[in-house]
Write a structure and sequence with these properties.
single chain; binds zinc ion
Length: 211
């Protein structure tokens, strides 16, 4: 199975679905990650790129499968034909069976722009069968209602390590291991993913799905 995860910022893939990425890799799926920006206007783009490479390597994704668009953040406040075109070209090149992307139910405008753009342009066909939205604890809104869950109990340690690789983000509330584990534990328990007291899960919203 060929997987494409599309993220706005260098740490979004790890925070949103690091455990699921590691699980896909473990079962032999081909995982590709597209990161649209190299962080905010005040960050160091080269440092953010290196952190993203280190983080996704921990999850088993090699650097040649991690691509950066380095799209100007100032042009991501609203959907545009230019962004649509660039994303469409990348999706066509990758030809994934499943896409993961930000939910439009998010407080961060750049996440909303990218999520909405991908949901609009990703057409299900013989190749692409599924589009799912992942949950970013820093900004996914209360209206995000996950209806698909992945048991990441065996992958939470990797997820936490991959997030800690983003050293420039280490003081953020949402990168703290206890916060990441707490959400995983709640998703697992409340959705009855299993009965393991240490159980962890990631939640997704199914946006498009064809069997
Ligand atoms: Zn982000």
């Amino acid at each position: 199975m060929r997987i494409l995860c599309i993220a706005a910022h260098p740490d979004d893939a790890e925070i949103g679905m690091g455990g699921t990425i590691a699980r896909h890799v473990d079962r032999g799926d081909d995982v590709y990650i597209l990161t649209c920006t190299l962080g905010g206007v005040h960050g160091d783009p080269q440092a953010r790129m290196k952190e993203a490479q280190a983080g996704t390597r921990i999850l088993g994704v090699s650097n040649d499968r991690l691509k950066f668009l380095d799209y100007p953040i100032s042009k991501l406040n609203n959907p545009s034909a230019g962004l649509s075109q660039v994303l469409k070209e990348h999706i066509d090149d990758c030809n994934p069976d499943r896409i993961y992307v930000h939910s439009p139910e998010d407080y961060h405008q750049v996440h909303v722009t990218i999520g909405a753009t991908v949901l609009r342009l990703a057409k299900l066909d013989d190749g692409l069968r599924e589009v799912l939205c992942y949950e970013v604890i820093s900004s996914t809104s209360r209206d995000f209602k996950p209806n698909a869950f992945v048991d990441i109990t065996n992958y939470m340690d990797l997820k936490v390590r991959s997030i800690l690789a983003h050293k420039s983000q280490s003081t953020r509330l949402y990168t703290q291991p206890n916060v990441i584990r707490a959400l995983g534990n709640i998703r697992y328990a409340r959705e009855k993913v299993g009965t393991d007291p240490e159980g962890m899960a990631e939640g997704f919203e199914i946006a498009k799905y064809v069997v």
